[in-house]
User: Fold these one by one.
Assistant:
Number 1:
Amino acid sequence: DAGITQSPRHKVTETGTPVTLRCHQTENHRYMYWYRQDPGHGLRLIHYSYGVKDTDKGEVSDGYSVSRSKTEDFLLTLESATSSQTSVYFCAISYTHEQYFGPGTRLTVT
Amino acid sequence: GENVEQHPSTLSVQEGDSAVIKCTYSDSASNYFPWYKQELGKGPQLIIDIRSNVGEKKDQRIAVTLNKTAKHFSLHITETQPEDSAVYFCAANNQNSGYALNFGKGTSLLVTP
């Protein structure tokens, strides 16, 4: 998975609780992305980062925030988890166009 | 924004046959078109990509063609093998979001022995 790890790999949480997912890379790539994958929707962009402290919104950013304080780490936070945020979350990295994905985090919100 | 349509959603072929998956995109500014293979429980894996200044690219048994005028691109897998069974996604770059990608909804390919 091109030097990309995600943690945790699985998480079950209750509605209304905050959740933070971590993406860590060892490739020193400038760009990092968070996608969610749902049946019938493919992968959809939540947020992306183009450098330390530089982030922007994607297609489905409502209810999510991100932070990037170091090149190697990109955090995704669900401030107050809802059942509609049950999904598989993938982090990706790129130097330019070619994106490489992590192994994913399966999040269940009950 | 960019809209990527992918067909078919499922495809079943016999081992040794060819498989073709087709995608269309809406944003004429898109200039990068990758294909990903995703096996169960894993992240998508980049298998081949094409840029808008090229009409065709081949890598062993897989090839991708691009028709910029018609805004469609296709993945061709020849001499399919059971290990080709997976979900395949096409994508097009989103010029407004760094190098972010807009994905099709995927094609589940089953290769039967």
Number 2:
Amino acid sequence: DAKTTQPPSMDCAEGRAANLPCNHSTISGNEYVYWYRQIHSQGPQYIIHGLKNNETNEMASLIITEDRKSSTLILPHATLRDTAVYYCIVRVATKGGSNYKLTFGKGTLLTVNP
Amino acid sequence: GAGVSQSPSNKVTEKGKDVELRCDPISGHTALYWYRQSLGQGLEFLIYFQGNSAPDKSGLPSDRFSAERTGGSVSTLTIQRTQQEDSAVYLCASSFSSGGDTQYFGPGTRLTVL
């Protein structure tokens, strides 16, 4: 799977949008961009994933650049409970094969401040 | 709907004792994964079950570790003769199908070996 680069930490004011960047310049054409987060002492939580189109769900939006070399996760109205480590990973999302071993990098520690 | 559940949430044991950790995947998910996460570290893949196929045990760190998945649903991870270096959070995840499907994690079991 392609490598990703994320800033180690970010701060955001409560109620404002949190924009978390991720660089994945070596991404392959069949690799998806996935975002998970891990709140302290909890298991990783799936947030969203996408291939090349922007995606939105009830938790967040994912904006992927046209060249797919970077993406941004947007939490539109951050709350204190969104304080967590956010992981951006790229992986092949196909049936079968051996691409099921998830690996997380260091991620971005997002701190939402009151 | 119900997510992945794990029990116990916390387990403290003495060095040399055996422990069993349980995972209940999301109903209908055929793939189940075990990972562990040591303090401040990333995910370490342990084992993968898919339907009735032979599991991928390539991540198990030693022969003291074993896992079963009975009836294609509940899984048990067993660690025999626990050592202090086994202390970690043991995470279970499941996905609808195999390979690159989105994995959903449970809350984890925090194992402390004294």
